[in-house]
Amino acid sequence: MASQTRRHVLPGFKLSLGFTWAYVGLLVLIPLSSLFLKTFSLTWPQFWETVTAPRALAAYRLSFGASFAAALANVVFGLLVAWVLVRYRFPGRSFVESLVDLPFALPTAVAGLTLTTLFSSKGWYGQHLEALGFKVAYSSVGVAVALTFIGLPFVVRTVQPVLEDIDADVEEAAATLGATPTQTFMRVLFPAILPALLSGFTLAFARALGEYGSVVFISGNMPLRTEIVPLLIVTKLEQYDYAGATAIAVVMLVASFLLLLIVNVLQRWSHRRLEARPGA
Amino acid sequence: MRTRSWLFPLILVAFVGCSKAGGEGSASGAVTLLNVSYDPTRELYVDLNAAFSRHWEATHQQKVTIKQSHGGSGKQARAVIDGLDADVVTLALAYDVDMLHDKASLIPEGWQKRLANNSAPYTSTIVFVVRKGNPKGIRDWDDLVRDGVAVITPNPKTSGGARWNYLAAWGHALRKPGGTEQSARAFVESLFRHVPVLDSGARGATTTFAERGLGDVLIAWENEAFLLTDEVGKERFEIVVPSTSIVAEPPVTVVDRNVDKRGTRAVAEAYLQFLYSEEGQRLVAKHHYRPRSEAVARKEGARFPKLTLFTIDEVFGGWRKAQSAHFDDGGVFDSIYVPQAR
Asked: What is the DSSP letter of B289?
């Protein structure tokens, strides 16, 4: 292994590896391990009671459920957006292109306030939706809407480069061999972009789990109904219950880590399957 | 490549050096104080700080600059506990200041006795804001739980200000003729069943009520109610003063460990004393807080309507008791929501 690293074109592996460890350690490992340390001030029954309280369970359900729904919506519509941006040239394309990144840059609290204003019963969207019987603001649907907003760029930006890499001749070849457009998409294009879609989904999902600013405005924060986990953590902090707050944070951390792991495995699997395909 | 390994520590040292050099010393003649306060006091302290600087320079020939920091009361207290160098704190409730003693020993146990009036130089109370013309005919607390009335108040678990709202409602029901712990609990429970949205902070609740048009009545601090009616929309809202309410006492104190470390105790103490002075009290009244000074209060009497007021010490035995009975995990507020879980 050592001889392999020495033969790299760029020198300085040892220094850069040391830097990487120091940087990741300082910024990620130490903060996260101190999170775990903080929960050690709780006894095991106390910890269990904190993380399985009815309010906590309801909050996990909402946070994971709404994040999942939002990430799923972004996979479908984000793929469409990426597709149109890559395949077609139309007036205002570069404008749409830059709009996609806006949720990255916008303070999420601003997004939350705006969405709530739009979707509340007096808002532009809300008044019509409520006439139809849909309550968006101050319900779990509202939470999913806010999380969809902040997650959109992740899917678009991971799928876009992959789509750009697929040449148009691939589709043409499929067509000349007699494939229908649906077949072309399902059997040629979709397998190629599936890994990227999965990582886009993962990123959007992970981002949504931790989201606070935009959601507290639109959710209405009703205990057991529209309370998200980050709000519960803030609630504990407001009571100077540092250990309780970190206990719930640890649950979220472990859960998201497991989810990321699962999706990574899926991604690797789909990648391998793709490479094993004859002719791919 | 090895020769460059000094680079990283050097950068690190440079960073640390810079942040050290940025700290302020009080020996240079000019003094800087940091006042860590809660959200809606920004404009009040802009005025008070300017007045105090003039006063201090005139009496001590020393320039004093007061920096302000605002945020949710609990969040601000946590920042001070975690090391924010506040010389004085001016927070929304005594419980948050208590924690400076409990969690970090920054101040002594009996801090609230150090200044007059429970260390609260100004007070406020909890009132209602309704839409112009008061379409639902809301006059008092009991009207809030009538059918079809939607009440806006922030979440007492996340907002210090909202805890005063909650305690005002509880105290009203408890002090009614025939009121008991059970009837008070039942009242507050049905009150929160009329709350469609629990915003995380007081300003958020105000926005929900005023801008989004949600709810029929907003439970608010009197000073916030004045801001909303006088400065945002006199033609849109009006204030309804209930028959009884609680005295909201936002307390102030010097942070002993910090002022002793920075050598700013004298100025910091004079600054808090200034809040009680004639001039300080007038500014307090100007910003819609009820002054403690009888003389100033008499002059402002028309603006601050009379109502039966009770204190948290009388009814709840102080903040610590109120906090643990009502707002801590497993307290009354939690149990209000548990039975109606889906």
From this structure: P
Q: Using CB atoms, pick whichever of B5, B212, B328 lies closest to residue A239.
A: B328
Write the pLDDT tens digit of every residue in A95-124: 999 999 999 889 998 999 899 989 988 889
Per-residue pLDDT band for B239 (boundaries 50, 70, 90) equals very high
Q: What ipTM goes with this model?
A: 0.78
Q: Inter-chain contact A221–B328, Cβ cutoff 8 Å? A: no
Q: Strand, helix or coil at B9?
A: helix
Contact A239 B212 (CB under 8 A): no
This prediction's pTM: 0.83
Where does B222-317 show beta strands of DSSP type E?
237-240, 244-248, 252-254, 290-291, 308-310
Best B198, B236, B336 member to test A by mutation, with max A CBs in 10 Å, is: B198
| Whether the Cβ atoms of residue B93 and residue B73 lie closer than 8 Å to each other | yes
Residue A85 identity: L
Local structure of B35: helix, strand or coil: strand
- Angstrom distance (rounded) from CA A244 to CA B97: 21
Mean pLDDT calculated for residue range B249-256: 96
The shortest CB-CB distance from B1 to any of A12, A121, A235 is to: A12
If you count them, how many residues does chain A have?
A: 280
The CA-CA-CA angle for residues A36, A40, A42, to 5°, reads 125
Instruction: Tell me the C-alpha distance between A79 and A155, whole Å.
Output: 7
- Rg (C-alpha) for chain B, rounded Å, is 22
Query: Which residues in chain A are contacts of B158 at CB distance < 8 A?
Result: 221, 231, 234-235, 238
Q: B209 pLDDT exceeds 90?
A: yes
- Dump pLDDT digits (tens) for A245-261: 999 999 999 988 888 88
Question: What single-letter amino acid sits at A39?
Answer: T
Q: What is the pLDDT of residues A146-203, one digit of tens each?
A: 999 999 999 999 999 999 998 888 888 988 998 888 888 888 888 889 989 998 999 9
**What tokens does B257 get?**
């460990």
How far apart are alpha carbons A193 and B227 in whole angstroms? 55
According to DSSP, residue A9 is labeled S
Assign B278 a pLDDT band (cuts: 50, 70, 90).
Answer: very high
Q: Determine how β-strand B151-152 pairs with β-strand B217-221.
A: parallel
- Asked if residues B161 and B221 have their Cβ atoms less than 8 Å apart, the reply is yes
